[in-house]
Structures are given as C-alpha cells and as structure tokens.
Amino acid sequence: MIPTITAFETSPDRGKGLARDMRVRWALEEAGQPYAVRLVSFQAMKEPAHRALQPFGQIPTYEEGDLVLFESGAIVLHIAQTRAGLLPDDAHARARAVAWMFAAVNTVEPPTLELVVARFLEGDQPWTEQRLPLIRDRIRQRLGDLSARLGEADWLDGAFSAGDLMMVGVLRRLQASGLLDEYPNLAAYVGRGEARPAFRRAFDAQLAVFAGRPATD
User: Fold this and answer.
1) Bridge partners of 36?
2) What is 91-196's CATH topology?
3) For residue 15, is pLDDT > 50?
4) pLDDT digit string (tens) for 18-75?
5) Which CATH class for the 4-85+199-208 domain?
6) In this structure, are strands 4-8 and 36-40 parallel, antiparallel, or unpaired?
7) Domain ranges, ordered by start, for the chain
8) Distance separating alpha carbons of residues 213 and 14, to the nearest angstrom
9) What's the CA gap between 214 and 206, in Å, rounded?
C-alpha cells in the first residue's frame, strides 16, 4: 500500500525544503518507497478533517491503511523501522541512531526554532534585539558540542542513518543565519546530506509544488 503524506499547499519557505514534510519525503526516498502527497491549505489545516489526523493542525501527517501518524520524527522513525536503509542491522547501532533522531528534535532544534520565532514573528517587539544574541549563543553551544562529536567523520555514527537525516534536516534551518558556517565540519556534513540522491529527489518533488506560483502567493 502506498502511504499518503500531507504538505503545505503554499509553504512559507517558498520551496526551500525547510517544512517538516521534507524530512518525511527524504526518508521515503531513501527507503525506495513510493508515496502520494495531499496538499492542504492553511485554512484546511485547522478544520476538523485535518485535525482528526493531526490534533495540532500542522503538517505533515502520514496515512498507510489504518495507520495514521503525525510528528515528522515519529513518521521517519516508523519508516526507518519498517523499511530497509535507514537503520543499522546491529541492535546497539540502531539504538544509537534513534538516540540521534531524538537529539535532533529535542536538543538541537528548539533553539533554532527560537531564532526563527524571534526574527520573523517577534521582530517588531522591543525585546527582540536584546534576545537575539542570547539565542544565538545557545545555538552555538549546541553546534559546538555537535561539531566536537562529529569531528572529521562523514556521519554521526558510522554509516548514514535516520539520525543523520533528522539532524541534517534540523541544521538546514540555520544556513541562512550564517551560524552554521562557523562550524565548517557541520556545514560540510549538511552538504553531504544534501548531495544524497534521495535528498535531491525529495527536494525537487517539494520544490515542484511551488514552481510557477506568483511571489505574492
């Protein structure tokens, strides 16, 4: 059965692949799993039909037969556990890959999202200029720890895994801020993720949604 995921009909990032459906698309492409995409508007995301799938009115969702999932991390974990290619065969290595998935969304992503909120949603507030240096320092602390752990390795724990997929997905949000460039090994790590054929297929698929849309869309 071909799973169906939901994605923004009109994404705020204009096809840069920063919305969380990108992580799910990438995982499906890595697994060689065909999938369908149902695009939803911002209005539809808040209506009962979508909230029955995603109680917080967000994307992505994942439907496969009777199974309905939400939260990109949970969806990627399900894909990795049920298809080959995203988790190692060794039980301990699998557990470590899952740990890196949780680290991506629980430890590294929160301060990066705080930066997005401060810059784009609270940018007109009087406290924003005072907060931004503090947020950037918190991000640097996380990046410094991650950079030290990665070192000169290509991936976080041996071969590429779902842990790398989630971590690269989180770090890509920092490319425009310049913070990632302060850690050359992390910038190169993200570049390796983006160079994977499965990533390129996923990126091109989500970008195609916005091809030809007017800039005011």
Assistant:
1) 4
2) Glutathione S-transferase Yfyf (Class Pi); Chain A, domain 2 (1.20.1050)
3) yes
4) 999 999 999 999 999 999 999 999 999 999 999 999 999 999 999 999 999 999 999 9
5) alpha beta
6) parallel
7) 4-85+199-208, 91-196
8) 9
9) 16
Greater confidence, 1 or 195? 195
| CA–CA distance, 160 with 154 (Å, rounded to integer) | 8
Q: Give the model's pLDDT for residue 215.
A: 45
pTM across the whole model:
0.92
- Give dist(CA 151, CA 216) in Å, integer: 43
Long-range contacts of 149-155 (CB under 8 A, 24+ apart): 150/185, 150/186, 150/189, 151/185, 152/185, 154/189, 154/192, 155/189, 155/192
In residues, how long is the chain? 217
CA angle at residue 185 from 107 to 197, to 5 degrees? 90
**Contacts with 193 (C-beta within 8 Å, 6 or more apart), sequence order:** 164, 165, 168, 199
φ/ψ of 35, rounded to 5, equals -155, 160
Q: Are 151 and 185 in contact (CB under 8 A)?
A: yes
Backbone dihedral angles phi then psi of residue 38, each to the nearest 5 degrees: -110, 115
Please say if the pLDDT value at position 121 is more than 80. no
| 3-class secondary structure, 3 | coil
d(CA 111, CA 139): 6
Kindly state the tokens that stand for 20.
């969380």
CA distance 46 to 20: 17
